[in-house]
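Researcher: Please predict.
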Amino acid sequence: MTKLFSLEGRSALITGGSRGIGRMIAAGYLRQGARVYISARKAAACDATAAELSALGRCVSLPADVSTAAGIEGLVADYLEHESSLDILVNNAGAAWGAPFDEFPESGWDKVVDLNMKTPFFLTQALHGLLVAGARDRPAKVINIASIDGQSVNPMETYPYAASKAGLIHLTKRMALRLIHDNIVVSGIAPGAFASDMNRDARDHADTVAERIPSKRIGSDEDMAGAAIYLASRAGDYVVGHTLTVDGGVNLAR
């Protein structure tokens, strides 16, 4: 049982790993013994986070813009300079855009839907061979970070964000059924309120936000790390295609 949640000797690649939920997961994986590679569009931020997290274990910065095919190709090439296989992929990079219905721009729609739903598919596709190589002795893992806004409706006019996260939850199911044949387990996490640059209300007004949460608090780093460790470890090997809701009860309360 002591090894049930261990990630000792495992390699993990986390997109959007320089801040917020990605950073929480990276820190958790490092504490469980994984070798962690984080990617983010802004190289300086990615490098700085990797340097800070290296106090916990091996953490390598691989800056890339995974919203483009060229960025995905470059990230895979950079990862191959360090590893010949991949055990855990966390598709966390994402974007949000809010605007009134009558004014919502196509550029905002495309940016959000492409990064939140298209990128996880094509990055996983590009890394498929490395994941297969990592799945020889035990399952490799792909974890897609969705949102409770893809499960229930919030009052904000973030149309493509909600739609893309709902799509990602369904895509997780479809990918899971295909990739399990390669001993790759695909699952997801739907976070609620966690402090981040994307969720500034939770970051800047935690007490106010907590009043609307049945658990009466926003999520902590440990809450997110715990869920991600569970799915990535031996403990989560039999969780196929399911998206785990980590929100203190908000989705049910809605």
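Model: The chain has a mean pLDDT of 95.
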